[in-house]
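Hi all, long-time lurker, first post. I run a small reading group and we've been trying to get comfortable going from sequence to structure in the token notation. Rather than ask abstract questions, I figured I'd post a concrete chain and ask someone more experienced to write out its structure so we can walk through it together at our next meeting. Sequence below, copied exactly:
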Amino acid sequence: MHSPSPHSLVDLPIRHLNRGDLVPCADLCEDRGWPRDEHRWGLLLSAGTGYGIDAPDGKGLAGTCLTMPYGSDLTAVGMLLVAERYARQGLARRLMRYVMEAVGDTPLALYATEQGQPLYEDLGFSPVGRTERIGGRFGAPGSGGSASAVVSPSRAPLTTRPAAADDLQAMVRLDLPVFGTDRTHLLARLPAFSDRLQVAEEHGELVGYAALWPSGHAEVVGPLVARDTATAQALVASLAATTDRPLRTDVYARHKELLGWLAERGLEPLARTTVMTYGIPDLPGDAARRFAPLTVATG
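-- Answer (accepted) --
Happy to help. Here is the structure in token form:
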């Protein structure tokens, strides 16, 4: 079969994706060695805007990209994927340029793999941080046992519990200064998206929250927003106690204490991404309380 030339590939039309594209999107992830993640794609396409290029051979998608808008303050870019058979022919650059034109003057943020970073740098993005992806069976230090409870070491009793419907507003109030932008449209979808949504309280005040959601053979912890490391540990431990599947999470590299604690409990390094921005010098918000994103596709 004749393969399209690089010139004809970059001239292929870009269209909006919808929920009818979930299987082709998952197929493309699998083609590139990622978990299929129809579940995650469902959230991304309902809360964000997906862009795709149909494969000229009629077999699914040749490439995808997704934007997650947070008002006029920030747009996260993710899921930039090109099918292996069309790689290195300009599709990724074309999709990124299209997205950058579509959002206009809105600042951008993304999480770059080592392979993707040179493209983003060439397009004007700057590195501002890093995340460490870790995963494995969560257990007590030095054992393969089940998750153990974590107690906040100094303050009044810290408790964690499943989130209730009336916790959403408190979560939004906590999230706004942490991420520096209104993410209500994303947080409102967490209860239906997550296997478990947990909050941390002290004296009745919400001081953290975290979600657990399925991805392939693992459960992902994210987002993870907490007042301090001890609160983050308590949330992770309480979520780990609800599943017997391996855990995975992307922790911002500045949180070395949490990363060390997770390593002691059996989680191992899997990959890393570089946090990059365009149009702003850094991510907005309070990085000290931002421990893990929902997913590197959304921030």
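A couple of things your group might point at:
The mean pLDDT is 91.
The two ends are 41 Å apart (CA to CA).
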